[in-house]
Write a structure and sequence with these properties.
Number of helices: 13
Helix content: 55-70%
Distance between the termini: 49 Å
Shape: globular
Oligomer: single chain
Number of strands: 2
Largest sheet: 2 strands, antiparallel
Strand content: under 5%
Protein backbone atom coordinates (compact mmCIF):
# COMPACT_ATOMS: atom_id res chain seq x y z
CA UNK A 1 0.00 0.00 0.00
CA UNK A 2 1.39 3.45 -0.96
CA UNK A 3 1.29 6.13 1.75
CA UNK A 4 0.70 9.69 0.49
CA UNK A 5 1.74 12.48 2.80
CA UNK A 6 0.61 16.06 2.52
CA UNK A 7 2.78 18.65 0.78
CA UNK A 8 5.07 20.46 3.18
CA UNK A 9 4.76 17.84 5.89
CA UNK A 10 8.05 16.72 7.41
CA UNK A 11 9.32 13.32 6.31
CA UNK A 12 8.49 10.37 8.53
CA UNK A 13 11.24 9.23 10.84
CA UNK A 14 12.78 5.87 9.98
CA UNK A 15 11.81 2.88 12.11
CA UNK A 16 14.36 2.11 14.80
CA UNK A 17 16.47 -1.01 14.34
CA UNK A 18 16.93 -3.48 17.16
CA UNK A 19 20.04 -2.81 19.19
CA UNK A 20 22.93 -4.95 18.03
CA UNK A 21 20.76 -6.54 15.38
CA UNK A 22 21.19 -6.87 11.69
CA UNK A 23 19.31 -4.86 9.10
CA UNK A 24 17.94 -8.07 7.50
CA UNK A 25 16.85 -11.12 9.47
CA UNK A 26 18.54 -14.40 8.60
CA UNK A 27 21.78 -12.69 7.58
CA UNK A 28 25.12 -12.77 9.29
CA UNK A 29 27.44 -9.91 10.03
CA UNK A 30 29.07 -10.24 6.63
CA UNK A 31 25.75 -10.04 4.81
CA UNK A 32 25.67 -13.73 3.92
CA UNK A 33 23.20 -16.38 5.12
CA UNK A 34 23.55 -17.59 8.67
CA UNK A 35 25.86 -20.63 8.76
CA UNK A 36 27.58 -19.79 5.47
CA UNK A 37 31.33 -19.90 5.07
CA UNK A 38 33.74 -22.70 5.83
CA UNK A 39 32.26 -23.80 9.16
CA UNK A 40 29.80 -26.41 7.72
CA UNK A 41 32.61 -27.89 5.63
CA UNK A 42 34.88 -28.09 8.66
CA UNK A 43 32.18 -30.03 10.49
CA UNK A 44 31.91 -32.71 7.81
CA UNK A 45 35.62 -32.74 6.94
CA UNK A 46 36.57 -35.51 9.47
CA UNK A 47 33.93 -37.87 8.08
CA UNK A 48 34.97 -37.19 4.49
CA UNK A 49 38.67 -37.59 5.26
CA UNK A 50 38.00 -40.83 7.13
CA UNK A 51 35.94 -42.19 4.23
CA UNK A 52 38.64 -41.27 1.72
CA UNK A 53 41.32 -42.93 3.84
CA UNK A 54 39.34 -46.11 4.48
CA UNK A 55 37.74 -46.51 1.04
CA UNK A 56 39.37 -44.42 -1.66
CA UNK A 57 43.01 -44.95 -0.70
CA UNK A 58 42.83 -48.80 -0.59
CA UNK A 59 41.01 -48.81 -3.93
CA UNK A 60 43.61 -46.56 -5.59
CA UNK A 61 46.42 -48.59 -4.02
CA UNK A 62 44.91 -51.85 -5.29
CA UNK A 63 44.62 -50.43 -8.81
CA UNK A 64 48.27 -49.35 -8.74
CA UNK A 65 49.52 -52.72 -7.47
CA UNK A 66 47.50 -54.53 -10.15
CA UNK A 67 49.43 -52.55 -12.79
CA UNK A 68 52.86 -53.37 -11.35
CA UNK A 69 55.17 -56.34 -10.97
CA UNK A 70 54.57 -56.58 -7.22
CA UNK A 71 55.75 -59.72 -5.46
CA UNK A 72 57.49 -60.38 -2.13
CA UNK A 73 60.77 -58.74 -3.17
CA UNK A 74 58.99 -55.60 -4.35
CA UNK A 75 56.98 -55.53 -1.13
CA UNK A 76 60.21 -55.44 0.93
CA UNK A 77 62.44 -53.30 -1.29
CA UNK A 78 59.75 -51.07 -2.78
CA UNK A 79 61.10 -51.12 -6.37
CA UNK A 80 57.93 -52.29 -8.14
CA UNK A 81 58.00 -51.94 -11.92
CA UNK A 82 55.03 -50.76 -13.96
CA UNK A 83 53.83 -53.51 -16.33
CA UNK A 84 50.51 -52.13 -17.55
CA UNK A 85 47.73 -54.66 -18.11
CA UNK A 86 49.98 -57.73 -18.11
CA UNK A 87 48.59 -59.02 -14.81
CA UNK A 88 45.05 -58.77 -16.14
CA UNK A 89 46.07 -60.62 -19.30
CA UNK A 90 47.65 -63.39 -17.22
CA UNK A 91 44.55 -63.62 -15.06
CA UNK A 92 41.99 -63.62 -17.88
CA UNK A 93 43.84 -66.33 -19.84
CA UNK A 94 43.92 -68.69 -16.83
CA UNK A 95 41.37 -71.51 -17.11
CA UNK A 96 41.24 -71.92 -13.32
CA UNK A 97 40.19 -68.28 -12.95
CA UNK A 98 37.14 -68.79 -15.16
CA UNK A 99 36.19 -71.89 -13.18
CA UNK A 100 36.27 -69.73 -10.06
CA UNK A 101 34.11 -67.10 -11.81
CA UNK A 102 31.48 -69.68 -12.72
CA UNK A 103 31.50 -71.05 -9.18
CA UNK A 104 31.14 -67.53 -7.78
CA UNK A 105 28.06 -66.77 -9.85
CA UNK A 106 26.54 -70.14 -8.97
CA UNK A 107 27.22 -69.50 -5.29
CA UNK A 108 25.68 -66.03 -5.49
CA UNK A 109 22.60 -67.20 -7.41
CA UNK A 110 21.87 -70.03 -4.98
CA UNK A 111 22.29 -67.87 -1.90
CA UNK A 112 20.34 -64.85 -3.13
CA UNK A 113 17.46 -66.97 -4.44
CA UNK A 114 17.09 -68.86 -1.16
CA UNK A 115 17.53 -65.73 0.96
CA UNK A 116 14.87 -63.71 -0.87
CA UNK A 117 12.41 -66.62 -0.99
CA UNK A 118 12.74 -67.52 2.69
CA UNK A 119 12.84 -63.88 3.82
CA UNK A 120 9.64 -63.08 1.95
CA UNK A 121 7.87 -66.09 3.44
CA UNK A 122 9.08 -65.24 6.95
CA UNK A 123 7.98 -61.61 6.56
CA UNK A 124 4.51 -62.70 5.42
CA UNK A 125 4.24 -65.09 8.37
CA UNK A 126 5.29 -62.39 10.85
CA UNK A 127 2.65 -60.05 9.47
CA UNK A 128 -0.07 -62.60 10.23
CA UNK A 129 1.09 -63.48 13.75
CA UNK A 130 -0.33 -62.05 16.92
CA UNK A 131 1.55 -59.62 19.11
CA UNK A 132 3.28 -62.25 21.26
CA UNK A 133 4.25 -64.45 18.32
CA UNK A 134 5.49 -61.46 16.33
CA UNK A 135 7.70 -60.28 19.18
CA UNK A 136 9.09 -63.78 19.69
CA UNK A 137 9.94 -64.29 16.01
CA UNK A 138 11.43 -60.82 15.60
CA UNK A 139 13.54 -61.31 18.74
CA UNK A 140 14.85 -64.62 17.41
CA UNK A 141 15.70 -63.01 14.07
CA UNK A 142 17.53 -60.13 15.73
CA UNK A 143 19.56 -62.49 17.92
CA UNK A 144 20.48 -64.60 14.90
CA UNK A 145 21.46 -61.51 12.95
CA UNK A 146 23.54 -60.17 15.85
CA UNK A 147 25.65 -63.32 16.17
CA UNK A 148 29.25 -62.62 15.06
CA UNK A 149 30.26 -64.24 11.79
CA UNK A 150 33.23 -66.10 13.30
CA UNK A 151 31.09 -67.48 16.13
CA UNK A 152 28.36 -68.69 13.75
CA UNK A 153 30.94 -70.28 11.45
CA UNK A 154 32.56 -72.08 14.38
CA UNK A 155 29.18 -73.40 15.53
CA UNK A 156 28.51 -74.81 12.05
CA UNK A 157 31.94 -76.42 12.01
CA UNK A 158 31.10 -78.29 15.21
CA UNK A 159 27.58 -79.16 14.01
CA UNK A 160 29.06 -80.98 11.00
CA UNK A 161 32.14 -82.34 12.74
CA UNK A 162 32.86 -85.87 11.52
CA UNK A 163 33.30 -87.35 15.01
CA UNK A 164 31.53 -85.05 17.50
CA UNK A 165 29.00 -83.31 15.25
CA UNK A 166 25.33 -83.43 16.21
CA UNK A 167 24.27 -83.72 12.56
CA UNK A 168 25.99 -87.08 12.13
CA UNK A 169 24.58 -88.27 15.46
CA UNK A 170 21.03 -87.23 14.50
CA UNK A 171 21.26 -88.93 11.10
CA UNK A 172 22.48 -92.14 12.73
CA UNK A 173 19.58 -92.02 15.18
CA UNK A 174 17.24 -91.78 12.19
CA UNK A 175 18.71 -94.97 10.74
CA UNK A 176 21.32 -93.61 8.32
CA UNK A 177 24.26 -95.70 9.48
CA UNK A 178 26.43 -94.53 6.56
CA UNK A 179 26.82 -91.12 8.26
CA UNK A 180 28.93 -92.57 11.07
CA UNK A 181 32.00 -90.29 11.17
CA UNK A 182 31.02 -88.88 7.76
CA UNK A 183 33.62 -86.21 6.76
CA UNK A 184 31.42 -83.40 5.47
CA UNK A 185 34.26 -81.01 4.74
CA UNK A 186 36.23 -83.60 2.78
CA UNK A 187 33.61 -83.64 0.00
CA UNK A 188 33.31 -80.61 -2.25
CA UNK A 189 29.55 -80.73 -2.79
CA UNK A 190 28.83 -81.24 0.91
CA UNK A 191 31.14 -78.38 1.96
CA UNK A 192 29.63 -76.10 -0.67
CA UNK A 193 26.11 -76.92 0.56
CA UNK A 194 27.03 -76.28 4.21
CA UNK A 195 28.41 -72.86 3.28
CA UNK A 196 25.21 -72.01 1.41
CA UNK A 197 23.13 -73.03 4.45
CA UNK A 198 25.34 -70.96 6.75
CA UNK A 199 25.17 -67.78 4.67
CA UNK A 200 21.42 -68.13 4.09
CA UNK A 201 20.88 -68.64 7.84
CA UNK A 202 22.90 -65.51 8.59
CA UNK A 203 21.29 -63.35 5.89
CA UNK A 204 17.59 -64.19 6.17
CA UNK A 205 17.01 -62.22 9.42
CA UNK A 206 18.05 -58.86 7.96
CA UNK A 207 16.09 -59.41 4.76
CA UNK A 208 12.99 -60.67 6.60
CA UNK A 209 12.91 -57.79 9.09
CA UNK A 210 13.38 -55.24 6.30
CA UNK A 211 10.64 -56.77 4.17
CA UNK A 212 8.31 -56.96 7.16
CA UNK A 213 8.84 -53.24 7.78
CA UNK A 214 7.76 -52.67 4.17
CA UNK A 215 4.71 -54.93 4.51
CA UNK A 216 3.29 -52.95 7.43
CA UNK A 217 3.17 -49.84 5.22
CA UNK A 218 0.69 -51.42 2.80
CA UNK A 219 -2.80 -49.96 3.47
CA UNK A 220 -5.19 -52.57 4.84
CA UNK A 221 -8.01 -51.04 2.80
CA UNK A 222 -6.45 -52.45 -0.35
CA UNK A 223 -6.52 -55.96 1.09
CA UNK A 224 -10.12 -55.59 2.22
CA UNK A 225 -11.23 -54.36 -1.21
CA UNK A 226 -9.42 -57.23 -2.93
CA UNK A 227 -11.02 -59.82 -0.64
CA UNK A 228 -14.46 -58.34 -1.25
CA UNK A 229 -13.82 -58.72 -4.98
CA UNK A 230 -12.96 -62.39 -4.41
CA UNK A 231 -9.22 -62.22 -5.10
CA UNK A 232 -7.14 -65.18 -3.90
CA UNK A 233 -4.14 -64.83 -1.61
CA UNK A 234 -1.76 -65.38 -4.51
CA UNK A 235 -3.54 -62.78 -6.60
CA UNK A 236 -3.46 -60.28 -3.73
CA UNK A 237 0.29 -60.78 -3.32
CA UNK A 238 1.00 -60.32 -7.02
CA UNK A 239 -1.34 -57.38 -7.60
CA UNK A 240 -1.07 -55.48 -4.32
CA UNK A 241 1.61 -56.63 -1.90
CA UNK A 242 4.59 -57.07 -4.20
CA UNK A 243 4.07 -53.86 -6.23
CA UNK A 244 3.83 -51.89 -2.98
CA UNK A 245 7.01 -53.35 -1.45
CA UNK A 246 8.97 -53.62 -4.71
CA UNK A 247 11.38 -50.72 -4.00
CA UNK A 248 12.40 -52.23 -0.63
CA UNK A 249 12.50 -55.71 -2.15
CA UNK A 250 14.88 -54.51 -4.88
CA UNK A 251 17.06 -52.74 -2.33
CA UNK A 252 17.37 -55.87 -0.19
CA UNK A 253 18.02 -57.94 -3.31
CA UNK A 254 20.87 -55.64 -4.35
CA UNK A 255 22.43 -55.73 -0.88
CA UNK A 256 22.28 -59.52 -0.77
CA UNK A 257 23.91 -59.74 -4.21
CA UNK A 258 26.79 -57.59 -2.94
CA UNK A 259 27.18 -59.46 0.35
CA UNK A 260 27.08 -62.97 -1.09
CA UNK A 261 29.24 -62.11 -4.10
CA UNK A 262 32.05 -60.97 -1.79
CA UNK A 263 31.58 -63.60 0.93
CA UNK A 264 34.98 -64.41 2.36
CA UNK A 265 35.12 -64.87 6.12
CA UNK A 266 32.83 -67.90 6.30
CA UNK A 267 34.65 -69.72 3.50
CA UNK A 268 38.13 -68.87 4.74
CA UNK A 269 37.42 -69.94 8.31
CA UNK A 270 35.46 -73.09 7.48
CA UNK A 271 37.16 -74.59 4.42
CA UNK A 272 39.97 -72.26 3.28
CA UNK A 273 38.53 -72.66 -0.20
CA UNK A 274 38.78 -76.47 -0.12
CA UNK A 275 38.59 -79.34 -0.46
CA UNK A 276 40.69 -78.67 -3.53
CA UNK A 277 39.06 -75.54 -4.87
CA UNK A 278 35.45 -76.71 -4.46
CA UNK A 279 34.49 -73.69 -2.33
CA UNK A 280 36.88 -71.13 -3.81
CA UNK A 281 35.09 -68.03 -5.08
CA UNK A 282 36.63 -64.80 -6.35
CA UNK A 283 37.44 -63.10 -3.00
CA UNK A 284 39.02 -66.30 -1.68
CA UNK A 285 40.90 -66.79 -4.95
CA UNK A 286 42.32 -63.26 -4.72
CA UNK A 287 43.59 -63.83 -1.17
CA UNK A 288 45.01 -67.26 -2.02
CA UNK A 289 46.86 -65.82 -5.01
CA UNK A 290 48.26 -62.93 -2.99
CA UNK A 291 49.25 -64.84 0.15
CA UNK A 292 49.98 -68.41 -0.92
CA UNK A 293 51.74 -67.56 -4.19
CA UNK A 294 52.98 -64.16 -2.96
CA UNK A 295 51.69 -62.65 -6.20
CA UNK A 296 50.22 -59.49 -4.80
CA UNK A 297 49.88 -58.05 -8.28
CA UNK A 298 47.70 -60.92 -9.50
CA UNK A 299 45.71 -60.87 -6.25
CA UNK A 300 45.02 -57.16 -6.70
CA UNK A 301 44.03 -57.74 -10.31
CA UNK A 302 41.62 -60.46 -9.22
CA UNK A 303 40.13 -58.09 -6.64
CA UNK A 304 39.59 -55.39 -9.26
CA UNK A 305 38.00 -57.88 -11.64
CA UNK A 306 35.68 -58.90 -8.80
CA UNK A 307 34.67 -55.28 -8.25
CA UNK A 308 34.06 -54.74 -11.96
CA UNK A 309 31.99 -57.91 -12.30
CA UNK A 310 29.90 -57.02 -9.28
CA UNK A 311 29.37 -53.50 -10.60
CA UNK A 312 28.38 -54.92 -13.99
CA UNK A 313 25.83 -57.26 -12.45
CA UNK A 314 24.27 -54.44 -10.42
CA UNK A 315 24.20 -52.01 -13.37
CA UNK A 316 22.51 -54.60 -15.58
CA UNK A 317 20.02 -55.42 -12.85
CA UNK A 318 19.16 -51.79 -12.13
CA UNK A 319 18.71 -51.06 -15.84
CA UNK A 320 16.23 -53.89 -16.12
CA UNK A 321 14.44 -52.75 -12.97
CA UNK A 322 14.14 -49.13 -14.11
CA UNK A 323 12.97 -50.27 -17.54
CA UNK A 324 10.22 -52.34 -15.95
CA UNK A 325 9.25 -49.44 -13.72
CA UNK A 326 9.03 -47.15 -16.75
CA UNK A 327 6.87 -49.63 -18.65
CA UNK A 328 4.59 -50.00 -15.62
CA UNK A 329 4.10 -46.22 -15.49
Amino acid sequence: MTVVREAGAPPAAPLPRPAGGSARPGRGAGGGPVGSGVWPYLLIAPAILGMLYLLAYPLVRTVLISLQDFQLRQLIQGDARFVGLRNYETLLTDAQFWQVVRRTFLFMAMNVSLIMLLATLVALVIERLGRVGRIAVLSALVLTWAMPVIAATTVFQWLFHSEFGIVNWALQQLGFASFDRYPWFAHGTAAFTILVVLIVWQSVPFAAITLYSALVTVPTELYESARIDGASARRIFRAITFPMIRPIFMLVFSLEVIWTFKAFVQIWVMTNGGPGDATTILPVYAVQTALSSQRYDLGSAASMVTVLMLAGVLVFYFRQMFRQEGEAL
